[in-house]
Amino acid sequence: MIETRRLRTLRAVADHRTVTAAAAALHLTPSAVSQQLVALEHEVGHRLLERDGRGVRLTSVGRILLGHANEVLAQLERAGADIAAYTTGTAGEVKVASFATAIGLVVAPAVGTLRDKEPGIQVRVLDAEGDQSLTMVLDGVVDVAVAVEYRGAPAEDDRRLSRIPLYSEPFDVVLPRGHPLADPDRIPADTDHTLMDPDRIPADPDHTLMDPDRIPADPDHTLMDPDRIPADPDHTLADPDPPGNAFSVTDGRNALPIAGHPETPAAGGPGLSVADLAGETWIGPYPGNPCHDVIALACEHAGFIPEFAHSSDNFSAVVALAAAGAGVAMVPRLALRAADLSDVVIRPVPGPERRVFAAVRRGAERHPLLVPLLDALQDAATALRQAPSL
Fold this sequence. Notes:
By secondary structure, the chain is of the alpha/beta class. Among the domains are: about 1-85, Arc Repressor Mutant, subunit A (Orthogonal Bundle); about 170-355, D-Maltodextrin-Binding Protein, domain 2 (3-Layer(aba) Sandwich), CATH 3.40.190. The chain has helices at about 5-15, 20-25, 30-45, 60-85, 100-115, 130-140, 290-300, 315-325, 370-385; strands spanning about 50, 55-60, 90-100, 120-125, 145-150, 160-175, 250, 255, 280-285, 305-310, 330, 345-360. The strands form 4 sheets. Strands 4-3-5-12-6-11 form a 6-stranded mixed β-sheet, sandwiched between helices. A hairpin with a 4-residue loop joins β7 (about 250) and β8 (about 255).
C-alpha cells in the first residue's frame, strides 16, 4: 500500500529538484524527506531518484509513478471538495498568492465582493511573483495562485493544476524624453501609423497630417481649435490641454490625451517594433520574474538578446530609471498606472503580452470555499477586460 504523503513528497522533490528545497516546501527536515523516499522505493520495488549534478531527478519508474501520483492527489482534492460541500463549507480561510499589479486589479476587488456576499470566507493574500505562486499552490502553502504565463510555466494541460484565464495586457515601451525613438520623425519604418512624413501621405484634405504649408498658424501642431472639437476622447488629436486628472503621453511635439480608463495610461503616438530596440541599454525585472522572460523572448524573436544593465521587479522603479535616462524598458500597460510618467514617453509595441490566470490544485476547483473566490476573480477580470484601456 502506497501512502499518499509519500506521493506528495515525491512530487515536491520532482518540482524542486533537491531534497533540501522539497523539505523546506513541505515543512519537513531533509532527513524526514529522505526517509519517506526510501520507504516509497521499498513499496514500489524500484529506484525512483538518481543524482543530477547537485540535485536529483526522477528515474523512468519515478516519472511513471509521478503521473499516477498527480491523478491520486487530484482525486483526493475532489474528495475533500465534495465533503466540504456536503457540510456546507460556507466558512473558512482561503490563501491567495498573487503578484502586486493583479492584487490591485482583480484580487482586491474579489476580496471586496466576498466580504459582502460570503462574509464567512476569510481571504488571506500573499504578494508573490507568478512563478513563485504556482509553486506555492503545488506545495499546499496557498489555495489559489494568480500567475502569469511564461516560458517555464506549467503547461495548460498540466495534470497537477486547473487554470482559469483572467485577462491579458500588452507591453508598452518606456523611453526617456529626448531619446531618438521618442521623436516620431526619427522612428524607423513606421508606415502604418500616424505622424509620418506628410510628403508620403495620400491626398487627405479633410483630416489631420495635411501639408504643413496649408496649416493656419498652429505652433503646437494640434491642427484644430480645441473649442470646436466634438466630444472624442478616444481618437485623434483632441484637446491639447486635457483635464488635470487625465494622464497623457507625448508624441514628441504635443501632448495627446490618453483614451480609455482615466486611471490607466495607454501608449500614444506611433508605435515601435521590438526590433527597433536592438542595441539599447535595458531596464527590467530580474531573471526568474515571468515578465523578464516575456521581454527576453520577444527580443529573441526579434533577433537580438537584450542587455539588462538595471534590474528591479518594481515597475515604478523601472519607469523612474528610464526617466533618468538609464535605458529603455518594456512594461505591462496596467503596471504603468502606478508610475510617474511625467518624464518618459510611452509607445505601443505589438507582440509581447502578460497573460494572467488563476490556478488551483486539480480537483480543488469544486471546493465550496474556492468556488465563490474564483467566481469573484473572474467577475473582476471581466470588468477589467471591458475597460477601454485593454
